């Protein structure tokens, strides 16, 4: 009997990951025979664990915190968006035995914003809070949408300025600290800090969100995040969290591995319904 094609997500911690569930639903929906598991893998274990996974016939891997930079270094070759983001969340075995690295996070975010929520990015003023791995992964796909201006604001100012400089020439982009946000206004504010995970928020000036503007927290949880609540308080047209991005980045990884694009709407609705208790 032919064994199932094997996929997995590696991360630390990995206990609460929704990825196996999402990929199993995608597989069922598209009639693909595969298995997808979650494995606790630390930074120290990464190299050996990935090498073993592919040596034993694994076809593809998702890598999540804190392994995305290591996955980037592991890949034999990378897509342009992965190259720019310096982080890889998807590894795919190629026909010649090499390993391709991609980053589907930015695609997932832009698809959720534009396709699922009809939020236009072109010619708008966009603010990203945070300059860590998640921010890095979403910048190129956002710039591809041709916003009027993209500003990155971070607690450690230098990181925002340096990150923006890396994308110089790819669009109107700059970096600053949170203090510099006074008297500025944006049509879309994306929270890519990890502050939400501990219920915290950077101190944001009132009037930061333009009338009719939208808020999006890359983090998600069973309860609305601190930033989603900030969006409500500041009269955002939509104040969303990153559950849709999670499903859309998974769909893009599934497409890279299987060449079939799963439908995401029903999966997002299912996961949403489960947290609205
Ligand atoms: P990271 O690389 O550790 O970066 C964390 C960022 O948050 C840094 O810019 C850091 O600022 C900032 N920060 C942390 N605590 C803060 C606080 N109390 N006040 C202000 N800024 C603070 O993390 P990451 O990988 O970028 O992840 C960021 C978020 O994105 C996480 O919540 C993660 O779950 C989410 N994410 C979601 C998806 C999805 O599919 N929905 C995908 C990827 C990531 P400093 O530089 O000053 O330390």
What attributes does this structure have?
6-stranded parallel sheet, single chain, Rossmann fold, globular, 277 residues, alpha/beta, 6-stranded mixed sheet
Q: How would you characterize the overall build of this protein?
A:
The protein folds into two domains: 5-103 and 244-274, 3-Layer(aba) Sandwich (Rossmann fold); 106-241, NAD(P)-binding Rossmann-like Domain (Rossmann fold, 3-Layer(aba) Sandwich). It is 37% helix and 22% strand. The chain contains ten helices and twelve strands. The radius of gyration is 19 Å and the shape is globular. The protein starts with a strand and ends with a helix.
Task: Produce a short descriptive summary.
The chain has ten helices and twelve strands. With 277 residues, the protein is of the alpha/beta class.
Write the layout of secondary structure elements.
Blueprint: E1 5-11, H1 19-30, E2 34-40, H2 46-55, E3 60-63, H3 68-74, E4 77-78, H4 80-85, E5 90-93, E6 99-102, H5 105-116, E7 125-129, H6 133-143, E8 149-153, H7 157-166, E9 173-176, E10 186-191, E11 209-217, H8 226-233, E12 239-241, H9 243-258, H10 265-275
The structure holds NADP nicotinamide-adenine-dinucleotide phosphate.
């Amino acid at each position: 009997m032919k064994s199932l094609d094997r996929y997995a997500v590696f991360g630390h911690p990995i206990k609460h990951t929704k990825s196996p569930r999402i990929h199993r639903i995608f597989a069922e929906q598209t009639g693909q025979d595969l298995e997808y598991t979650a494995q606790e893998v630390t930074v120290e274990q990464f190299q050996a664990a990935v090498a073993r996974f592919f040596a034993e016939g694994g076809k593809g891997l998702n890598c999540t915190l804190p392994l995305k930079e290591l996955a980037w270094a592991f890949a034999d070759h990378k897509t342009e968006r992965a190259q720019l983001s310096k982080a890889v969340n998807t590894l795919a075995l190629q026909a010649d035995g090499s390993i391709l690295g991609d980053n589907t996070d930015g695609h997932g975010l832009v698809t959720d914003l534009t396709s699922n929520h009809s939020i236009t990015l072109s010619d708008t003023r966009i603010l990203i809070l945070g300059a860590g791995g998640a921010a890095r992964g979403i910048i190129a796909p956002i710039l591809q949408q041709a916003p009027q201006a993209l500003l990155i604001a971070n607690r450690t100012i230098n990181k925002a300025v340096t990150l923006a400089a890396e994308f110089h020439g790819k669009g109107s982009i700059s970096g600053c600290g949170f203090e510099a946000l006074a008297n500025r206004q944006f049509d879309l504010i994306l929270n890519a800090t990890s502050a939400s995970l501990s219920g915290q928020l950077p101190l944001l000036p009132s009037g930061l969100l333009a009338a009719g503007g939208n808020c999006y927290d890359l983090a998600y949880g069973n309860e609305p995040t601190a930033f989603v609540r900030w969006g409500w308080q500041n009269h955002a047209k939509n104040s969303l969290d990153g559950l849709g991005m999670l499903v859309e980045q998974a769909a893009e990884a599934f497409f890279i591995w299987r060449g079939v694009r799963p439908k995401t709407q029903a999966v997002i609705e299912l996961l949403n319904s489960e947290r609205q208790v």
